[in-house]
Inverse folding.
């Protein structure tokens, strides 16, 4: 399984960040896998942002819920993240990852993509 994320490298404050993750070697609709977005700001730890399940359900970390949306395109085997009203504090490396619901681990990760928010 391979995951590859992409999106704009630079945004201005108040814009909406859109990232997409393509999954190769496995279907995003296969039970019991969950597809997450995680980010790591410079010099800080990992922050889990949200997830979309194999059945399409979504869940977001409460602090980001109001301006985060995760969706999927099953025909392309991709899932996406939208983060609205970005600020410089949203500058981070953004990762997509697969969660294995059977063993409860994130077993495959993308390489990450750096997003910088700056005026």
């Amino acid at each position: 399984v391979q995951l590859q994320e992409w999106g704009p490298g630079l945004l201005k404050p108040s814009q909406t960040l859109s990232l997409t993750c393509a999954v190769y070697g496995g279907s995003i609709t296969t039970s019991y896998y969950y597809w997450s977005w995680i980010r790591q700001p410079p010099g800080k730890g990992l922050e889990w942002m949200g997830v979309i399940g194999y059945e399409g359900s979504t869940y977001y970390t409460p602090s980001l819920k109001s301006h985060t949306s995760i969706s999927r395109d099953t025909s392309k085997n991709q899932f996406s993240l939208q983060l609205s009203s970005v600020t410089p504090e949203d500058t981070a490396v953004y990762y997509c990852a697969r969660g294995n619901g059977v063993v409860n681990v994130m077993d495959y990760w993308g390489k990450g993509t750096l997003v910088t928010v700056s005026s």
The chain has a mean pLDDT of 96. The chain is about 0% helix and 55% strand. The first strand starts at residue 2 and ends at 6. The CA atoms of residues 26 and 34 lie 12 Å apart.
